[in-house]
Amino acid sequence: MSQTLTPPPGSAPAPGRAVQPAHPGQPGGQTGTASLTQAQERAERRAGVRSALRRTPGKLRIALAVCVLASIVFGALGFQAARVQGIALEDARSDTSQLVGIQDVRNNLVVADASATNAFLVGGLEPADQRARYDDAIANASIRLAELAGSNSADATELGVVASQVTVYTGLIEQARANNRQGFPVGSAYLDQASTLLRDEILPTLTTLVDDNAERVASDLSMVRNAMWILAAGLLCLALLIVTQVWLAKRTHRVLNVGLLVASIVLLVVGVGGAVLLSQTNSAAAAVRDGPYAATLAASTAYSEANDAKAMESFTLIKRGSGQTYEESFVELTADAAQRLDQAAADGNLDGTSAGYLDDWVVQHQAIRALDDAGDWDGAVALATSADEGGPNAAFAAFSQTVTSDIAENIKATQADLASAGNRSALAGWLLLAAGLAAAVLAWRGLNVRLEEYR
Q1: How far apart are CA 56 and CA 154, in angstroms?
Q2: Engineered SS bond to 108: which of 82, 141, 212, 251, CB 3.0-4.6 Å?
Q3: H helices within 253-323, ranges in order?
Q4: Rounded to whole angstroms, how far apart are CA atoms 279 and 452?
């Protein structure tokens, strides 16, 4: 019989013989066994978690987390909706102020131009009141340009250019005056240059800035409306609490859970109240847009166009028989101004008084044109420059006083209404946030009571 020889300890295995794996208890098998044990432990933990979540206590913990999170999200979304509204309203106030300020600059410049051209008709030393009106208008325009350039960086470059051009314009007007006092015909050429600079460069730039700010205001007010969608998303969180309340009633065979019930009531009541406040804010913003803000734009634009037309009236006479183009501009400007004021009165935003005074002045203008067209140029100039009560300048002064009062009242109402709407929105935001946090605490306490029953 053959014998199997066992190699001595420490010797290499015989060729062709397989190496036996190490015993699990030996060092060679420790790494693989440890990895297998860790994987088994992780799998057991996951299985334990799944098993725990399938049981009622586990489901209660999930419901508790969902309700608390939903309540917090509700408050956060409500606060954010109000915050978006508040920011939009503040931006609308700022952009509205900027827009009206730019229109004020435009109005002052056309008032100055109308005064300068009307005074030019007198010849020699112009009337002191018209000179004072011109100086005041230019000074106001210059001050407002500096203020507006500093209040909105988006308009600063263009307003800086306008300020430089106004300096050139006033220099040309002074040249026109100096020559007109001495009876030099070249004075009208300087007046033409000043008018061309004003109407071809300065006023178009200001009009573009007005349009840009009007777009910003419209965008701001649309954000007030869009904030309602954020609140609508927050109200979905209330549905989660109601669903949980129904599930809990079926699961525990108890109709009510006081904590959840009170949390749901808090969210419902404050949610409805907050929605009403934010909706009122949205309505208030829309009312401002269609009310005093629209009236401000209409009155301000009409005032600017009327003063521009006043300058055209003077230029028609200055050109002595070759001013038909200026008369056509007068008709277009006054027709558009009247249409704006009539529409504002029809919408209930203005009382129609300024529109009536504008019509009176246009009728007076027809008397000037009748004299000039009949060959009585001197009579037409005398009527156009007369300060007598019942004359064209008196009618224009009555219109100016009324329409500037309309502008001041409506911009004041616009700012006040937007500020009031912003305060209402801020109140709604804090109420919604507080309600969300309170509901989170109530939901936690209500569900925690049920969890305690399983311990």
Answers
A1: 61
A2: 141
A3: 258-290, 292-318
A4: 42
CA 331 to chain CA centroid, Å, is 35
430: CB partners within 8 A, 6+ apart: 79, 82
Q: Residue written as tokens 């500020």?
A: 419
**425 residue type, one letter:** S
Q: What residues contact residue 182 under an 8 Å CB cut-off, 6+ apart?
A: none
Picking from 145, 143, 144, 141, the residue whose alpha carbon sits closest to that of residue 108 is 141
Those residues with Cβ within 8 angstroms of residue 234's Cβ, 6 or more apart along the chain or in another chain: 73, 74, 75, 76, 77, 78, 81, 271, 432
The predicted structure's pLDDT at residue 190: 93
Tell me which H or E stretch contains 187.
helix 186-197
As a three-state string, the secondary structure of 71-91 is: HHHHHHHHHHHHHHHHHHHHH
Are residues 110 and 311 in contact, defined by beta-carbon separation less than 8 angstroms? Answer: yes
Beta-carbon contacts of 366 under 8 Å, excluding residues fewer than 6 positions away, are none
Q: Per-residue pLDDT tens for 315-343?
A: 999 888 777 899 999 999 999 999 999 99
348 secondary structure, DSSP code: T
pLDDT exceeding 90 applies to what percent of the chain?
A: 46
Mean pLDDT taken over the chain? 83
Enter the tokens of residue 372: 């000039």
The four Cα atoms 285, 291, 293, 299 give a dihedral, to 10 degrees, of: 180
59 near 454, Cβ under 8 Å? Answer: no
Residue 414 to residue 425: CA distance in whole angstroms? 17
Cα–Cα–Cα angle for 321, 322, 326, rounded to 5 degrees: 110
The closest alpha carbon to 139, from 177, 97, 174, 105, belongs to 105
Q: Are 109 and 304 in contact (CB under 8 A)?
A: no
From 121, 104, 102, 417, select the one nearest 282 (Cα to Cα).
Answer: 417
From the list 328, 407, 329, 395, the residue with the least C-alpha distance to 356 is 395
- Each domain of the chain, given as residue ranges in start order, spans 65-449
Question: Residue 3 above 80 pLDDT?
Answer: no
User: What are the tokens at 385?
Assistant: 């420059």
Q: How far apart are CA 88 and CA 82, in angstroms?
A: 10
- Whole-angstrom Cα distance, residue 370 to residue 377? 10
